[in-house]
Amino acid sequence: MIRKSRSFTASGGTIYKQGGANFEVRKHSISREIIIEPGKSAIIPLLHYHPTEPTGTTVSGGNKISLMGSKRYATTSVQEGSTVKNMHLEIQIQPKTLSSSAICDFYTARIMTSFHDIKGNEIFGLEPDSAQDGKVKITDEASTPTSTQVSGTTGIDNNPLPQQTLSKQQYDEGDVIKHWYRGVRKNVIYGGQPVLYQAWERVPSKVKRSNTGMFYGMVIMNDSTSVTDDTDALRVQIKEQFTEIPLVQ
User: Fold this and answer.
1) Would you say the pTM of this structure is higher than 0.85?
2) pLDDT in tens, 122-168
3) pLDDT > 80? residue 101
4) Could you please report the per-residue DSSP string of 93-119?
5) Count: domains in the chain
6) What range does the domain containing 203 cover?
7) 222 occurs within a structural domain
8) 22 in a domain, yes or no?
């Protein structure tokens, strides 16, 4: 039986030890801003499978900010075999152009997939990446679709990603989409006041470990009626942090 131990060392971060090998946990921190027009839906990746370690950058600011050699991973990519137990989300949603008379209706939901879910190609807005087995692409679901990898070969998230034309009525009339879009909730912006959300969340067991086809995302459907200015378009600002624990072999 191999015994695993954890300790803090000067090399930066928490170190998992096995025999003579050390495995440093990876701190992920990513900020994004997304504009969602009325009648559109956006799938925002929170975690997704990547076959190798994503690219990280050394944290600056001196040894009172972080230990020497610590890295920051500005991506939602999680290397195959790694686990993520919790994540912190800080989200602000407001009209693209602030107005005291603006009223915006929007809905939020979550998508989670693993293993062969993606290969079935029945999830609205997602499709398998034929060039990289196990990875996911976002598609706009148009008659001549535009599709983009969630991340490239370095693991860094692509932004912007294609958005889909989807209303709450279309969602209500569907049946397959309800299987994949879970926990749909209505939100209303009025008087120009932003909607704020900040919390630590436990990662669902289905997407806790990164395996081929793993994807965890937030869906935001802008169900507002289009007007002449941008008071009905949504400006979504999302900051996300989580710790990736690599697989110790």
Assistant:
1) yes
2) 999 999 988 777 889 999 999 999 999 999 999 999 999 999 999 99
3) no
4) EEESS--TT-EEEEEEEEEEE-TTTGG
5) 1
6) 32-54+75-244
7) yes
8) no
